[in-house]
């Protein structure tokens, strides 16, 4: 996909309109009052062609404080939400819009579904891994201890049967989910584990330690396969391509990409604006790398050339979401606050001059009167690309989609 970096200001949809200073109440903001919102099933995958039909299709309440974690099931029929502050986990049926299960007194920092979607796995502040049966509300399991210290990053394998857990004391734990058991653990790093990734086949775990080491491990034994190196300054983030062949690491002013299937040789290194790569991720076709960090831009880079594809402007606070759609043509970005944007990468190919209006789709947004004073905390795509879930800092969860029959 060839694009012109200088002409890529491509704001497609501004889903949420920010309130002016005059609109902000002087005291605590009220929780949005939506009245009765009937759940509508999503009917289409969200694409550049139909994005103008995107609308609010449901609202999930129950949490009283910030929903900090959300997780879709693989079959797109359930959504799990967790508020660490109010120690509540809820599971929602996305076919009916009704609650499936509510788990109280649980501070869950990570949520994962089993392959059959009938079990929810959680890891929280007590550093225990729990397996919750969605079909038996009376069950409250004993947890498996993951670490004596606070749990850090957690990753689930592509087959959904394995977990890798890093801890703040530098240890790495790996688990199978069926049966639920710890497989192995090791002292992986001298400092806290900053990131954990799985290879596509689930047989390799990749870790980034805050001391600057990037290491690869065998899942079954946690024997070290390779140490990419210890870097100074330390990497800010790492990302693995969908085919597992490319590993990218972002540094304060650069990104390096290695070929894991070619003796871990560097493929290329390119310069980026300072601290703009705090978070990075590959596109589904692994041709692009999205990077977000300090400043108002989310940058997209060409993996093959190291050139800037586009800088997405207008982010006025910390980036809370930066994700590609399944077809690589849309990008969802959001900030903590009222701003959520959808960008059309495909439309940029036809632009001869940098006119953002040529790329603007008719505004399909959540009406401000429906959601007053929205304060976005998280925004994520569903696996099938038909829904976007948004969590509000005051506890609400909103779901966007294109209703069946639209």
Q: TL;DR?
A:
With 406 residues, this protein is an all-beta fold. It contains no helices and 32 strands.
Account of the 3D structure:
The structure is a single chain. The chain is mainly β and 406 residues long. The protein has one domain (5-20, 40-397): Methylamine Dehydrogenase, Chain H (7 Propeller). It has no helices and 32 strands. The chain has strands spanning 11-14, 55-60, 69-72, 78-83, 88-93, 99-104, 108-113, 119-124, 128-133, 144-145, 151-156, 162-167, 171-177, 180-187, 193-198, 204-209, 213-218, 224-230, 237-240, 246-251, 254-259, 265-271, 279-282, 288-292, 298-302, 308-312, 319-324, 330-335, 340-344, 376-381, 387-392, 397-401. The strands form eight sheets. A four-stranded antiparallel sheet has the order 1-29-28-27, with no helix packed on it. A four-stranded antiparallel sheet has the order 2-32-31-30, with no helix packed on it. Strands 3-4-5-6 form a four-stranded antiparallel sheet, with no helix packed on it. The relative contact order is 0.20.
